[in-house]
Amino acid sequence: MMRRIIILLAGLAGFAMPALSQQAADPILIRAAVLRVDDPGLPPISRLELPSDDLGFAGARLAIDDNDTTGRFMGQDFEAIEVTASTETATAEMDKLLADGVQFIVVLADDPVTLALADQAGDQALILNAKARGDNLRGADCRFNTVHVAPSHAMMADALAQFLVWKQWQDWFLIKGSHPQDEDLAQAFQRAATKFGAKVVEERLYEDTGGARRTDSGHVQVQKQMPIFTQRAPAHDVVVAADEADIFAAYLPYQTWDPRPVAGSAGLVPRSWHPAMEAWGATQFQNRFEELANRNMREVDYQTWLALRVLGEAATRTNSGDPAVLRDFILSPDFDVAGFKGQKLTVRDWDHQMRQPILLTTGLLMTSVSPQDQFLHQTSTLDTLGMDRPETECSF
After folding, report:
1. Which residues, if any, are the signal sequence (predicted)?
2. Which domains does the chain have, with CATH numbers?
């Protein structure tokens, strides 16, 4: 009897194998690319922040592994082409990807380059912005073909403002850098102060003179310079730094004239991700990345991972590899994706910014997560971060 059952099962297996073999032999290939445009500017102040060669790409590799875990059961196969460019070669590299028929492109670039590449792609590709934070990209310069996975300056500023107001640190001494991205962030802090009931008692400009920042005597110069630079400020609870260019903010803690905490670009920093994050299943996620990359995950890695997970989630939910179907679903109110942040992440229809919680972090720990519980919203508390529908300047 046992022998007959085995023969019968073998026969059934033989009957089913051709369909399975055909499925395995012909998976639907879902192609994407990660285009990283490297900036040859100044190195970071701290050598601990030097970018690794696989920055962003390591996040992409983890995302492809995650997508394939589900995809192999759905008859789907995922691919992410890794491309490194300079500001001079980015256009040519984008042309190659478009000519190759890649219709989902994760862009890691600054604001002007991201905007230029989105215009270049037009209706040929969906751009997933995983780095640029400028509010103009979600406002007057928004593009329908772009989804912003990277949080905006407005989201970062609002996340920090909610915590500072909760702490009743409502009087801010705002110090901004002299670069365009610094000005954009400073404006976001000004809006956040007004929005949540804080007050900027003074806004002061730190001019970048182009001097050396990482010399042996640098800390000695800063120890003398920063107290003098920050003296005679009106009474304030906290120093808020707007220094996206990474010129001065890291030197502020413990060097200000008045003994005050520092937040913004140094001290208490709003981030999309942090290596110390452990809640909501993040420990296992961090471990998998560290095993793959042999280093901690940085914000750009997380944002690149999330951008490609957006694609994977859309493919799973629609059971399709058709780029038009995937694009429409990503931009629909039915889309959401998990991001190890305790809430479903969705895309705003008015500016294509991804809603997401923002982590407030120090060097070693996560201090809090915004939105804070005290700040309510009629639709989603995540829309208390960044430009809400009535505030947007975006018009597709």
Report:
1. 1-24
2. 26-151+274-356 (3.40.50.2300), 154-271 (3.40.50.2300)
